[in-house]
Backbone:
């Protein structure tokens, strides 16, 4: 978290003093320009400061009027440093008679999850093994170098170019998983170095924007599969997902596309177009609109490097074609991996669940293997020793090489409280994307015709 806010030790409450508040009073402050949050029973007025938040203004707004303690702990590796920046925003605390949790959350589950995190910290599960990430970066650079050497040594024939494209798409996908690690501040000891290397990996190695990624991705983690809060379930009216949205669209007679066929046209406008079309446009639009000039400079450095290397062999036109073909392949890889544990899961409006329950209802387990770990960037690790998106979700600042260490403890907590989770094969998870789209399409058609 960055600086900002009023430069006073305390902001007085609504009665001109350091206040005590009920949950009812806190929950009145949820609109943009008037937002309060609760962290560790302390009440903060973040109305103006949200614009300065390094993780983006919306992520805090999604917790306005709520207890944000679990999200605050999950996203910030150096809590003491962040608390210093929060002092000017402090306006009071909850009344002694008020519970620590809002919205009838299970206090025992919340407390046990807090204790689990402390136990994992004591066991060193949040400590990084630098060699893991050095080798991961090294294999990305090696793939890039081999691709260029193949063109240099064997020319631009169709077979050689196809091999080069596969190597480049693999490097791009693996760089995507690596930037994810730095973006979550889970590699370096300080946030500053994580942010710097993040800009290098996502900017210079991938041609994207760290600021854009932070703005989107932290919202996704903060409120996964929650309509109007998770941008990853904003389908731009191209798809209807889950069980609630299809019926809602059907009842309102909304038909931007024939959603009962979305499981078919998904193959044509989903995986092929997300990165080369939608993300490509959104990244540059976001950088220019919000003045992210440092990100833009890193991004431009990627394009300069690429075209300097490949136009001398292919010329400008075919270098552009190769670039977009690589993006096309990378987009398939990205969509299938990231959506396999989300689209088939529960997608709904805000339910104000505790952190553990909210994360697990929105994701699932995929069986573990060395290939699956590498292929998915360890996003396969969900809840137990078999794979880990939930570990990424429960503990986003934990280095991914330690997910397996946390697995038995988190699974035991789930079993204790009856928190359900699903486990699938990689192929089964891919197939479930299509099955869930087909089911959602059927729900839409029924509501559209009969309700």
Residues:
């Amino acid at each position: 978290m960055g600086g900002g806010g009023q430069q006073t030790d305390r902001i007085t409450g609504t009665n001109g003093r350091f206040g005590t508040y009920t949950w009812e009073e806190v929950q009145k402050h949820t609109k943009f320009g008037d937002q309060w949050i609760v962290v560790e029973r302390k009440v903060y007025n973040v109305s103006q400061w949200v614009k300065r938040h390094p993780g983006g203004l919306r992520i805090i707004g999604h917790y306005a009027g709520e207890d944000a303690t679990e999200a605050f702990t999950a996203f910030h590796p150096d809590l003491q440093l962040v608390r210093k920046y929060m002092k000017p925003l402090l306006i009071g605390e909850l009344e002694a008679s008020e519970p620590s949790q809002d919205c009838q959350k299970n206090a025992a589950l919340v407390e046990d999850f807090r204790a689990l995190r402390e136990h994992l910290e004591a066991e060193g599960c949040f400590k990084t093994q630098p060699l893991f990430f050095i080798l991961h970066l090294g294999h990305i650079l090696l793939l890039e170098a081999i691709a260029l050497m193949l063109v240099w040594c064997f020319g631009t024939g169709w077979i050689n170019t196809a091999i080069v494209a596969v190597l480049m798409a693999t490097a791009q996908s693996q760089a995507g998983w690596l930037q994810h690690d730095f973006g979550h501040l889970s590699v370096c000891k300080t946030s500053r170095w994580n942010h710097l290397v993040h800009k290098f990996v996502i900017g210079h190695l991938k041609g994207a924007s760290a600021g854009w990624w932070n703005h989107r991705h932290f919202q996704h983690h903060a409120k996964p599969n929650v309509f109007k809060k998770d941008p990853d379930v904003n389908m731009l009216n191209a798809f209807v997902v889950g069980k609630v949205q299809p019926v809602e669209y059907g009842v309102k007679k909304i038909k931007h596309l024939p959603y009962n066929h979305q499981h078919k046209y998904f193959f044509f406008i989903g995986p092929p177009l997300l990165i080369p079309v939608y993300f490509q446009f959104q990244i540059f639009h976001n950088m220019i609109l919000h003045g992210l000039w440092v990100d833009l400079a890193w991004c431009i450095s990627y394009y300069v490097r690429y075209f300097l290397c490949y136009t001398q062999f292919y010329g400008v036109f075919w270098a552009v074609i190769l670039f977009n073909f690589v993006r096309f392949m990378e987009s398939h890889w990205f969509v299938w991996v990231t959506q396999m544990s989300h689209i088939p899961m529960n997608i709904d409006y805000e339910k104000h669940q505790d952190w553990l329950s909210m994360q697990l209802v929105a994701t699932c387990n995929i069986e573990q293997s060395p290939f699956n770990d590498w292929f998915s960037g360890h996003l396969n690790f969900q809840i137990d020793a078999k794979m880990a998106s939930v570990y990424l979700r429960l503990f986003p600042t934990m280095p991914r090489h330690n997910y397996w260490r946390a697995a038995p403890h988190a699974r035991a907590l789930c079993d204790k409280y009856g928190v359900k989770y699903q486990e699938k094969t990689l192929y089964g998870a891919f197939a479930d994307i299509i099955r869930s789209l087909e089911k959602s399409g059927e729900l839409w058609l029924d509501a559209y015709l009969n309700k």
